[in-house]
Amino acid sequence: MWVSSCGEEHLHGQRCLPIIILDNISFYIFLDKFSKYAKLGTAIELHCPPERYNLTVWKVNFNNGQHCHLSFKRENNTIARNCSKDFIDWVSIPEEDSAVQIKSFQMSREGIYRCFIATAKGTLNHEYEVSLSVSPQVSLTHANGTAVCKAAAGKPAAGISWNPPGDSQNVTEILPNDTKTVISTYNMKNVNEDKLTCIISHPTGGKSLILTLS
Question: What positions does the domain Ig-like occupy (predicted)?
């Protein structure tokens, strides 16, 4: 019995984890990690690596400490689960597709979703950190030579930039419901343009707010 190591030819941008080997047969665990955001009440699909598999296991660890699982074994075409079908189910039939669909995403469904598939190459693993996406409320005001651009109660935190670029500062506040407010202040005293634009970027969609200076 010995422990294998992953050569460069096995990596291809993935994290490769060695596991214990028996009878000089090499197996590896390939790990890919992703982050996904979903709007409240929308459906979201999660995919395993696109390989021929003998066994598929989805394990879900919610941020609230609860967990559940869903699996398919090709040898006898059996499905085992304690995840509710109303929450998550196969996109198609598991014999053909290992992908699953979260049917109506809620904040209580935030967490880590892991897919493990057993293949001839070893065990492949996709890991998703799935979070709720909330559009921020945006505003642009100015007073006493300072412009203030605000993206309130968004998740994740919005990105704020200015055109033209200038003397600005961003501050992020974390709210009790885990949303974030970003406030960006901009010193307008040396701006020679007719307009000042606050550019807000967010997974739910970007916005540009324009302040006319003349």
Answer: 146-214
Please check the confidence at residue 178 and state whether its pLDDT lies above 90.
no
Note the pLDDT of residue 74: 87
Which amino acid, residue 166? Answer: G
Q: Distance between alpha carbon 159 and the CA centroid of its chain, in Å?
A: 16
pLDDT at position 50 is 80
CATH number at residue 95: 2.60.40.10
- 8 phi, psi to nearest 5 deg: -60, -30
Domain boundary among 70, 102, 132: 132
User: Which residues lie below 8 Å from residue 95, measured CB to CB, with a gap of 6+?
Assistant: 72, 74, 77
Q: Span 50-60, mean pLDDT?
A: 88
